[in-house]
TrEMBL record:
<feature type="domain" description="Aminopeptidase N-like N-terminal">
    <location>
        <begin position="25"/>
        <end position="193"/>
    </location>
</feature>
<dbReference type="InterPro" id="IPR014782">
    <property type="entry name" value="Peptidase_M1_dom"/>
</dbReference>
<dbReference type="InterPro" id="IPR001930">
    <property type="entry name" value="Peptidase_M1"/>
</dbReference>
<dbReference type="InterPro" id="IPR027268">
    <property type="entry name" value="Peptidase_M4/M1_CTD_sf"/>
</dbReference>
<dbReference type="Pfam" id="PF01433">
    <property type="entry name" value="Peptidase_M1"/>
</dbReference>
<dbReference type="GO" id="GO:0006508">
    <property type="term" value="P:proteolysis"/>
</dbReference>
<dbReference type="InterPro" id="IPR037144">
    <property type="entry name" value="Peptidase_M1_pepN_C_sf"/>
</dbReference>
<dbReference type="Pfam" id="PF11940">
    <property type="entry name" value="DUF3458"/>
</dbReference>
<dbReference type="GO" id="GO:0008270">
    <property type="term" value="F:zinc ion binding"/>
</dbReference>
<dbReference type="InterPro" id="IPR012779">
    <property type="entry name" value="Peptidase_M1_pepN"/>
</dbReference>
<keyword id="KW-0862">Zinc</keyword>
<dbReference type="InterPro" id="IPR045357">
    <property type="entry name" value="Aminopeptidase_N-like_N"/>
</dbReference>
<dbReference type="GO" id="GO:0008237">
    <property type="term" value="F:metallopeptidase activity"/>
</dbReference>
<keyword id="KW-0031">Aminopeptidase</keyword>
<feature type="domain" description="Peptidase M1 alanyl aminopeptidase Ig-like fold">
    <location>
        <begin position="451"/>
        <end position="552"/>
    </location>
</feature>
<dbReference type="InterPro" id="IPR035414">
    <property type="entry name" value="Peptidase_M1_pepN_Ig-like"/>
</dbReference>
<protein>
    <recommendedName>
        <fullName>Aminopeptidase N</fullName>
        <ecNumber>3.4.11.2</ecNumber>
    </recommendedName>
</protein>
Length: 882
């Protein structure tokens, strides 16, 4: 029978709590299977609240031991307790009072990894969004801010380390082999930022002197023996602290900042005040075990969680509908940090690739929702690319519209006005409206309307009048719950290029607001006329991806080739190559399905090889240029009737054609980018490796010979080169002697390194072809596959479902059945992970009819299953019914 769907929570129903929480004193007596938690909570009734309203506290699978009012046991008639709530009646109308609640929880059995859990001998917490209610009964919502004192009691031998938020007050022995530690956080915070860690871990220490001269102790805790692999994370942390002071004027506010790395974690990291908890894949790195991408991710995520200290912790969210207020803003901040640390253009290309492959897909399907949703059934399912990445793009557009100086003033006002608040999107936007005297009400539709705007573009040049007219029209398709859309304020950065590539500066412009090379599209249809334009220009539009929109703009191959050759904005050069490639790739798919030879486009070939051979361009950018649109990009461009096998075959044929045409260039790059220098993870060296490895892939495909990849594998002295050459072997020459030998060597060499073995699983999970299912089933039986570890599940099942279209979308539907079984099994122990895996099937309606029918049948199996979690029930209902 079907489980009942969860209740809908609506933004319109928000109201403050009836009681104000002033202080929280927590005492934990840690035990693997029966941890005792005492929570002393000081409340007073809000003045405007009903004087007879009861105190209602949230819980989740809790066992209540006792409840006291001002240290006196409450009569059972005055309260009602269930595992999921505690209601206390007959409370004072005005004066403060104390409620003391004692609960018993089982950390060892907590496979959801929410609340307090114990894994690999380490006690750890994850409380965002609603995990704290799995620890004790509490007003578990983000607008309830209080100061916390935490006492932790535990066995000293097993748990020499006892950590929580804030500053360390002291500790001592506690008799019978136990000890305790006390922590105090002076900054009021919501319960989702609470953290506790206890166990036996190694330590990497450093200090940071803030701009005002305060010394902050920095501590990163990792498993013993892994300390040397945390040095890069420490360096990234210090650089983040300096950058936030210099760029946003934000100084750290406690005496200590701690990071703990754990291997069993549902998320990437968590910004708990003063005690960040990380998935260890985003902390641990050395040249032998981490790729350049791993280093870059560590740098970005360390920064992201640290930046939350102000955008998320000091200023938090009034309710979970405002999640983008902390996440979208902080993603923008970490993107800017990474751009300053590395290549801004290459970073921007990577951001847009990710946005298009994930968020645009989300925005056009059954899971579409606004950046600031108006309702939800399960908040865990709204930690999405829309909230994070599109939310970041909305902040970026504010910065573009206002300009650097006004944006900085708006941010300063936000920090000044709302420090210590639980704020809303409206609070944030109002700060920028106030400093700029600009009405941002239309712009705010970016927060409220789901869907990706499509902007249709046409141009006309009048030789006699020397005017150039740009006609723009915007539309947004209907999305679940939003059939009608209003015109958005879309800022489009532009340049006019002459035939020799020089920039043309028009004498004037009319038809709408044009400022700082920015067209402000604010109407459904709008024409901008540029005057004093001496020749027909080539329009480069949406430079640096100034707005997260889809341009319907048909430009000639010659115009695109000119942009690819001359544009000063490197993102636009890359975009021109993409716009040249996508029509060729899509036509190739049609040719494959019609059993015709795949034809090529000489303009694309010339433009691509010219950029690759241009030594004046940074290697990292040239490597990005070589990464043609992915299979997912092609599927998105086709828009429906998707045949993954045809897409794969067409793309492979076109890449082979490029490889053969540019073989001499690629061989030259292999030699030019090779180096005997010691590995360093800096952006320049990483860019050279990226170009070398991209060239290697093209050479191997041109020659159709595994030997060069096998030689590269044998010579590799760092994980970037090693894993890339292994991937080339596995993906292009599966089953060969060379590939089998390399896979076996990799497995045995890194048998005791879980993070590197994740790469081994992922590389095999993404080998294209229908044989992938047999491979996945075999790997699932491997003793090295741990279904209880989220990283390992994501590496195998997640990689297969999200990143292997030909394997996952087998025409017979067999892969759907296997992954469906895994999702149902995972849902029993870890609903968040199961729900994320289920989103791999969100585009099932776009598949060709046979595959779509098989996918629907598999999804229906999930929908009809007994006892689904709210997380999975919410996703499956939306995927099937939208």
């Amino acid at each position: 029978m079907r489980t009942e769907t969860g209740q809908v929570t609506s933004l319109a129903d928000y109201r403050p709590t009836d009681f104000v929480l002033e202080r929280v004193d927590l005492t934990f007596e840690l035990d693997p299977t029966e941890t005792k938690v005492e929570a002393r909570l000081i409340f007073h009734r809000r003045e405007e609240a009903n004087p007879n309203a009861p105190l209602v506290l949230d819980g989740d699978e809790l066992v209540l031991s006792s409840v006291l009012f001002d240290q006196i046991e409450i009569d059972s008639e005055r309260y009602t307790a269930t595992p999921d709530s505690l209601t206390i009646r007959d409370l004072p109308a005005s004066e403060p009072f104390e409620i003391t609640i004692t609960t018993l929880i089982n950390p060892e059995a907590n496979t959801q990894l929410m609340g307090l859990y114990r894994s690999n001998g380490i006690y750890c917490t994850q409380c965002e969004a609603e995990g704290f209610r799995r620890i004790t009964y509490f007003p578990d919502r983000p607008d309830v801010l209080a100061v916390y004192t935490v006492n932790i009691i535990a066995d000293k031998a097993a748990n020499p380390l006892l950590l929580s938020n804030g500053n360390f007050l002291g500790g001592a022995g506690y008799g019978e082999g136990k000890h305790f530690a006390a922590w105090f956080d002076p900054h009021p915070k919501p319960s989702y930022l609470f953290a506790l860690v206890a166990g036996d871990l190694g330590l990497v220490e450093d200090t940071f002197t803030t701009v005002s001269g305060r010394e902050v102790a920095l501590k990163i805790y990792v498993e013993h023996g892994k300390e040397p692999r945390a040095t890069y994370a420490m360096d990234a942390l210090k650089r983040s602290m300096t950058w936030d002071e210099e760029t946003f004027g934000r100084e750290y506010d406690l005496d200590i900042f701690m990071i703990v790395a754990v291997s069993d974690f549902n998320m990437g990291a968590m910004e708990n005040k003063g005690l960040n908890i990380f998935n260890d894949k985003y902390v641990l790195a050395d040249p032998e075990t981490a790729t350049d991408a791993d280093y870059a991710n560590i740098e970005a995520i360390i920064a992201h969680e640290y930046f939350h200290n102000w955008t998320g912790n000091r200023i938090t969210c009034r309710d979970w509908f405002q999640l983008c207020l902390k996440e979208g803003l902080t993603v923008y901040r970490d993107h800017e940090f990474s751009a300053d640390q590395r290549s801004r253009a290459v970073k921007r290309i990577g951001e847009v690739r990710h946005l298009r492959s994930e968020q645009f897909v989300e925005d056009s399907g059954p899971l579409a929702h606004p950046v600031r949703p108006s309702q939800y059934k399960e908040i865990n399912n709204f930690y999405t690319t829309t909230v994070y990445e599109k939310g970041s793009e909305v902040t970026r557009m504010i910065a573009s519209i206002l300009g650097k100086d006004l944006f900085k003033q708006g941010m300063d006002l936000y920090f000044e006005r709302h420090d210590g608040d639980a704020a809303t999107v409206e609070d944030f936007v109002q700060c920028f409206a106030d400093v700029s005297n600009r009405n941002l009400s239309q712009f705010s539709l970016w927060y409220h309307q789901a869907g990706t705007p499509h902007v249709t573009v046409s141009c006309d040049y009048d030789t006699n009048a020397q005017t150039f007219t740009v006609k723009l029209a915007q539309t947004i398709a209907a999305t679940p719950g939003q059939p009608d859309k209003k015109p958005m304020h879309i800022p489009l950065s532009f340049a006019l290029l002459a035939n020799d590539g020089a920039m043309i500066a028009p004498a004037s412009a009319s038809g709408g607001e044009v400022s700082e090379n920015l067209l402000h599209l604010t109407e459904a249809a709008q024409s901008f006329v540029f005057h004093g334009v001496p020749e027909r220009p080539v329009l480069s539009l949406n430079r640096s991806f100034s707005a997260p929109v889809i341009l319907n703009f048909t430009q000639s191959s010659d115009d695109l080739a000119l942009i690819a050759r001359y544009e000063s904005d490197l993102f636009s050069r890359w975009q021109a190559l993409t716009d040249l490639a996508l029509p060729v790739l899509c036509e190739g798919v049609k040719q494959v399905r019609a059993a015709q030879p795949v034809l090529f486009n000489d303009a694309l070939k010339r433009s691509l090889l010219a950029i690759v051979a241009d030594d004046t361009l940074e290697p990292a950018f040239r490597a990005q240029a070589l990464a043609l649109p992915s299979e997912a990009d092609i599927a998105r461009e086709l828009g429906g009737d998707i045949d993954p096998d045809a897409i794969y075959a067409a793309r492979k044929a076109i890449i082979h054609d490029i490889a053969v045409a540019g073989l001499d260039i690629f061989k030259g790059l292999l030699a030019q980018m090779a180096t005997d220098a010691a590995y360093t993870p800096d952006a320049k060296a990483a860019g050279q490796r990226a170009l070398k490895n991209a060239a290697l892939a093209y050479v191997v495909q041109a020659e159709n010979d595994p030997l060069k990849a096998a030689e590269a594998y044998a010579k590799a002295n760092n994980m970037t080169d090693l894993s890339h050459s292994l991937s080339i072997l596995a993906h292009h020459f599966p089953g060969t002697t060379e590939t089998k030998a390399a896979l076996s060597d990799f497995e045995s060499r890194f048998a005791n390194n879980a993070l590197v073995l994740d790469k081994w699983f992922s590389i095999q999970a993404t080998i294209p072809g229908e044989d992938g299912l047999v491979r996945i089933k075999t790997l699932m039986q491997s003793p090295k596959f741990n279904a209880a570890n989220p990283n390992r599940v994501r590496a195998l099942i997640g990689s297969f479902a999200f990143a292997n279209p030909t394997g996952f979308h087998r025409a017979d539907g067999a892969s759907y059945s296997v992954v469906t079984e895994e999702i149902l099994a995972i849902d029993k122990r870890n609903p968040q992970l199961a729900a994320r895996l289920l989103t791999s099937m969100r585009t099932w309606k776009l598949l060709e009819p046979q595959r779509a029918g098989k996918a629907r049948a598999a999804l229906t199996t999930i929908a009809n299953a007994n006892d689904l979690s709210n997380d999975v029930r919410d996703i499956i209902d939306r995927i099937l019914t939208a």
